[in-house]
Specification:
CATH superfamily of the largest domain in chain A: Type I PLP-dependent aspartate aminotransferase-like (Major domain)
Mean pLDDT of chain A: 96
Shape of chain A: globular
Distance between the termini of chain A: 46 Å
Low-confidence stretches of chain A: none
Oligomer: homodimer
Radius of gyration of chain A: 21 Å
CATH topology of the largest domain in chain A: Aspartate Aminotransferase, domain 2
Chain lengths: 375, 375
């Protein structure tokens, strides 16, 4: 091989798509500190703090709270493979791409997914969920997405979890885009299993997936009759390393530097406080909304359940989707998101997540879009 | 929560355990560059180079070559869940911890593992492998560990793979600790599926697992009758993102910054060249060997199949394992590895991997051990 390879210097970007979002420079700095051994006492001290800080962010006392050493999709899979056994039945609510991914996960566990479908861009209908629960008294869990990244819809996590509990089901929640951006109260809302991602409102690098399991969920795992189909994601083994019961058994080599970064990102959230962080996301969203409506862009999702951190607007008639996004990227270094699945070509998704949810990004986005759409 | 959390500053360490190994500062620098979107054209260019550089490191033309977005254990799992279906039979060679992990993976796929056991610290016996192949004409694959991290033994990857092919089986190789440290020739040795890790001889941060599948392995995946049990590790979906057939479909959010780091680490290996890198590992091993034997430490593994990058020595009689490792860590900032499994308390494992395989580390280790063992 005679080719030459240069070190990779990324172009300057402002990330306002559906994630990864702009990473706080303090987090990039933490990321690059020298690697420690994954059983070093100093590193184990860090792991303990990460666990405590995740309990804070999720608002939970769950002992089984830690980051899975892989992206959000693996966090999703860790929840399903640990809680489900072949033959189980799960009610899955879908009003966007990620409900469909849950269905795939359920099926690959040899379980049945009973789908509750709602129009993309609208909320999951509580009445439909209750009907599904009545029609399926043998369901083990209700699974849904808190913040649908593909549409910008907030589902009513509190109400759906309450419904699930009333019908003696576990509640399983996708909080990939909600954690740190909008209200989330794992213990208060009686959520049994939840997973998130680091690259959205935590403003950390992509690659880890915080998860948490309630006492009831842990009991279900303990009572399993079949082994968890994934060795890598088997919570019983993973927790042997994360210190359940005081143990520190080697399972896999933790992504040490990514955990430095997650620690720093949770520390920043802790210093700001949850309510102030949620309020900042809301305020930045309001400012962006005024700016976009001023230049004639219309929001798709009803205001009552619109996510502040993921703003979905219709692409105006006659405007070329790919051309506009291409100009924003090449001329302004600005990334916004395309539509996913059935919304491809019809909408843009503008993220205001974590560190990136600030006035400078809001102004820059409105100004760049104004300039490009005028042509 | 009133606790205060400080930013984490890792203590100064020299990592000479079984991995993670000392990370090259150039790689830590690359790691901390600003995050790009996972579908940004500039990032896709980087992915293409990572793929090319991995083909170089593995010495393969395999199109299905890429890093799994999770640690080596997930790379191992990706190989088994994609190649196996319930009812399949695999011959698994075990002469250390990691052969046992392969067995667990095979079983969790609903397949049968026929074990070929050898003493820990000795090589896998080719005759036993051939007997197992003769006794199990329905076996689909032979799986083994190239460099057993738990013992420092090199198994004869070329000979075992040839045997597997002669009996019409796929060969599955764990190269977590071998890639970049000793000779490895995926195409020349007819290896069908292989996985590695980034935190050993590539001197990169932990968290990614390079994998490669031969044409024959891809045909087996294509002919599957059942879906891959893992959505996250389903190669058909993963390759939709990594550009098989020119596609770039969103699957999961890639760990962007870790891929910057892997790119830099492979670039460094490419600049050095494979043979020079292997030779450096061997030379550093010889120097360490002299130093350790001078202070009375004995190697466990026969010289003919000893790994240069993982040096296993017996703990002398009357020496307290934990005390010595504790003193090395607290007084010298030096991490060496404990024994794993049945070798716990009996051996130390001293890594000389990648960037860490240098004279300074060799000298420091011998000098620190000399000082501590004299007490």
């Amino acid at each position: 091989m005679t080719a030459q390879f240069n070190t990779f210097i990324p172009p300057v970007r402002t990330l306002m798509g559906p994630g990864p979002s702009d990473v706080d420079p303090r987090i990039l700095n933490a990321l690059s500190r020298p690697t420690l051994g994954h059983l070093d006492p100093a590193f184990i001290g860090l792991m303990d703090e990460v666990k405590t800080l995740l309990q804070f962010a999720f608002q939970t006392d769950n002992q089984l709270t830690m980051p899975v050493s892989a992206p959000g999709s693996a966090g999703m899979e860790s929840v399903f493979v640990n809680l489900l056994e072949p033959g189980d039945k799960v009610i899955v609510c879908q009003n966007g791409v990620f409900g469909g991914r849950m269905q795939q996960n359920v099926q690959r566990c040899g379980a049945t997914a009973v789908m509750v479908q709602d129009t993309w861009g609208q909320q999951t209908d509580l009445q439909k969920v209750e009907e599904a629960l009545k029609a399926n008294p043998d369901a083990k869990a209700v699974a849904f997405v808190h913040a649908e990244t593909s549409t910008g819809v907030r589902n009513d996590a509190k109400a759906i979890s309450e419904l699930a509990k009333r019908y003696d089901c576990l509640s399983i929640v996708d909080a990939v885009t909600s954690l740190g951006g909008i209200e989330l109260d794992v213990d208060g809302w009686q959520i049994d299993a939840i997973y998130s991602g680091t690259q959205k409102c935590l403003s950390c690098v992509p690659g880890l997936s915080p998860v948490s399991f309630s006492h009831a969920a842990v009991e279900v795992i303990k009572a399993r009759k079949t082994p968890v189909q994934s060795w890598f994601l088997d919570m019983d083994l993973v927790m042997g390393y994360w210190g359940q019961g005081g143990k520190r058994a080697y399972h896999h080599t933790a992504p040490v530097n990514s955990l430095y970064a997650l620690h720093e990102s949770l520390r920043i959230l802790h210093n700001e406080g949850l309510q102030p962080a949620w309020q900042r996301h809301d305020e930045m969203h309001q400012t962006l909304k005024s700016g976009l409506e001023n230049i004639g862009l219309e929001f798709v999702v009803d205001e009552a359940y619109r996510l502040p951190q993921l703003n979905m607007v219709s692409i105006p008639d006659g405007v070329n989707d790919a051309e506009v996004r291409g100009q924003l990227l090449s001329e302004f270094g600005l990334e916004i998101g395309a539509g996913l699945g059935e919304l491809a070509g019809k909408v843009w998704r503008i993220g205001l997540m974590g560190y990136g949810s600030n006035m400078k990004n809001v102004d820059y986005c409105v100004s760049a879009l104004t300039s490009v759409l005028k042509r």
